[in-house]
């Protein structure tokens, strides 16, 4: 079967894993559709996505249609307090949970159980942990006499919530062969059935109490969908066979305009979430920050530009590096981004689509904070602060290369000469020079949910904007991602800034 993807964007918006078996499609190349496509199984969904013959059939059906506000998809992007509407909340729960099933469809059973490094987790664990989250924070508290499928699942699938109880050691999750993958899917189904029954029958007061927790769980699920993709990429990269997660081909771009800078005025700006829709606690409270005049690069740094840094002995020039950064370079023997290798004088990189020559015009990714900082210094610039990034994002639409686009890798920008900000969302998470610390007046959520973000506010750096593995409905202008400065296995890239 020809597996070439024909640039299709798919949203499993209303796929119902409990009976309907329907999928709503959005086509990147065909405008938008609101038509329904009947499918027999999840496997056919993947055939539809990767088989041009299926795609042509869909084209005939949906050409000329456009998405409207009554299509039922409005909650996929901007939504406000979806927990006030149990039907909308339940549909979103089902769609996001099912999207995990779709992302796992290309995998074989053996792929689910491997853990390639302590920072990563097996696919099976991600599937179980996200189910445990709903069980621990909703079902155990909201459903009288609720019983888990197994009394030890809380011990196995709790991540770091110390208030809930003991946990299995993170670094050795890949040593476990049980529960089996089949049993984990049974666990997911069991939790889904109980959450569905609860949401359909709970009182309005229960919905008001637990609806916000379910919404956190939905966003938590999307975080782990991205982590699953980056973790399985690391797993596959360890295999000399270079397994292909899925075959897809990004559009070829022959030329990327020279980078320019967009200037922003000095001033006092409001930073942080305004509170009009969902946000994690670390995005609050909204507050004022003074910013000096600055310029922000109009696009991400490309592979071509980063290779110039490498070939100028960037990894050997100690003047460019923070002390911890150069120590890491020496200890880990870094000579380029993660997943890069030089063969016969040419750079190659491993992607979820296989092992390929480096596309010089694509954004560089799998870069640590240390590398991003050193590159910026070599280029004569710096990284932006997170406040600068948020100011620049302004009212820009949330559009870009997300997981729904099906590229599973950053893509080159179109050949446009206009001096506007590009790639602010999607493609790669963008390192900032801001440490992950609380905003003035920050308060954690009460109870175990307060462990979600606040206790990690030490020794980590902020990233903004989302990546090619992030769901479009998950990201927002105020989103604060955070990782240790030496981390590289996420889709992390570089945007430059300068002082004016």
Can you describe what's shown?
The chain is of the alpha+beta class. It has 2 domains: 165 residues, Four Helix Bundle (Hemerythrin (Met), subunit A) (Up-down Bundle); 239 residues, paralog of FGE (formylglycine-generating enzyme) (Alpha-Beta Complex), CATH 3.90.1580. 31% of the residues lie in helices and 12% in strands. It is built from 11 helices and 16 strands. The strands form 6 sheets. A 4-stranded mixed β-sheet has the order 14-13-12-15. A hairpin with a 2-residue loop joins strand 7 and strand 8. Helix 1 packs across helix 2 and helix 4 packs parallel to helix 6. The termini are far apart. The N terminus is likely disordered.
Which short descriptors sum up this protein?
11 helices; 500 residues; four-stranded mixed β-sheet; paralog of FGE (formylglycine-generating enzyme); Four Helix Bundle (Hemerythrin (Met), subunit A); 2 domains; single chain; globular; alpha+beta
Helix content: 25-40%
Total count of domains: 2
Proportion of strand residues: 5-15%
Distance between the termini: 55 Å
| The CATH class of the largest domain | Alpha Beta
Within CATH, the superfamily of the largest domain carries the name paralog of FGE (formylglycine-generating enzyme)
Structural class: alpha+beta
Give the overall shape: globular
Q: What Rg do the Cα atoms give?
A: 22 Å
The profile of the biggest β sheet is: 4 strands, mixed
Number of continuous helical runs: 11
DSSP, total strands: 16
């Amino acid at each position: 079967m020809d597996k070439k993807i024909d640039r299709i964007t798919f949203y499993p918006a209303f796929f119902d894993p409990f009976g309907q078996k329907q999928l709503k499609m959005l086509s990147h190349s065909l405008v938008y559709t609101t038509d329904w496509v009947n499918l027999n199984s999840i496997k056919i969904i993947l055939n539809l996505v990767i088989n041009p013959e299926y795609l042509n059939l869909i084209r005939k059906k949906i050409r000329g249609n456009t998405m409207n506000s009554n299509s039922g998809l409005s909650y996929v992007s901007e939504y406000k307090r979806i927990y006030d509407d149990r039907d909308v909340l339940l549909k979103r729960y089902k769609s996001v949970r099912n999207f995990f099933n779709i992302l796992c469809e290309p995998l074989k059973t053996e792929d689910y159980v491997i853990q390639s490094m302590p920072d990563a987790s097996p696919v099976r664990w991600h599937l179980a942990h996200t189910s445990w989250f709903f069980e621990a924070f909703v079902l155990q508290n909201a459903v009288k006499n609720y019983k888990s499928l197994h009394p030890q699942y809380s011990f196995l699938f709790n991540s770091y919530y110390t208030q809930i109880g003991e946990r299995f050691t993170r670094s050795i999750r890949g040593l476990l062969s049980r529960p089996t993958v089949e049993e984990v899917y049974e666990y997911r189904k069991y939790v889904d059935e109980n959450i569905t029954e609860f949401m359909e029958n709970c009182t309005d007061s229960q919905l008001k109490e637990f609806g916000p927790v379910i919404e956190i769980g939905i966003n938590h699920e999307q975080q782990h969908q991205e982590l699953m993709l980056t973790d399985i990429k690391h797993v596959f990269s360890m295999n000399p066979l270079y397994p292909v997660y899925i075959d897809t081909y990004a559009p070829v771009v022959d030329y990327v305009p020279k980078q320019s800078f967009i200037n922003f005025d000095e001033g006092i700006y409001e930073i942080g979430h305004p509170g009009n829709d969902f946000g994690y606690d670390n995005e609050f409270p909204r507050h004022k920050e003074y910013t000096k005049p600055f310029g922000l690069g109009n696009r991400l740094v490309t592979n071509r530009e980063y290779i110039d840094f490498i070939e100028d002995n960037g990894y050997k020039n100690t003047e460019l590096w923070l002390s911890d950064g150069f120590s890491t370079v020496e200890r880990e023997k870094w000579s380029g981004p993660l997943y890069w290798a030089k063969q016969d004088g040419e750079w190659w990189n491993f992607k979820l689509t296989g092992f390929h020559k480096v596309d010089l015009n694509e954004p560089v990714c799998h870069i640590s904070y240390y590398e991003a900082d050193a590159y910026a210094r070599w280029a004569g610039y710096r990284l932006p602060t997170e406040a600068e990034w948020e100011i620049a994002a302004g009212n820009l639409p949330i559009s870009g290369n997300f997981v729904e686009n099906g590229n599973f890798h950053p893509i080159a920008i179109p050949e446009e000469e206009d001096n506007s900000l590009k790639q602010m969302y999607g493609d790669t998470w963008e390192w900032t020079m801001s440490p992950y610390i609380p905003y003035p007046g920050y308060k954690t959520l009460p109870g175990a949910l307060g462990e979600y973000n606040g206790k990690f506010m030490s020794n980590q750096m902020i990233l903004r904007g989302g990546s090619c593995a992030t769901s479009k409905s998950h990201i927002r202008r105020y989103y604060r991602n955070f990782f240790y400065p030496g981390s590289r296995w996420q889709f992390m890239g570089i945007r430059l800034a300068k002082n004016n």
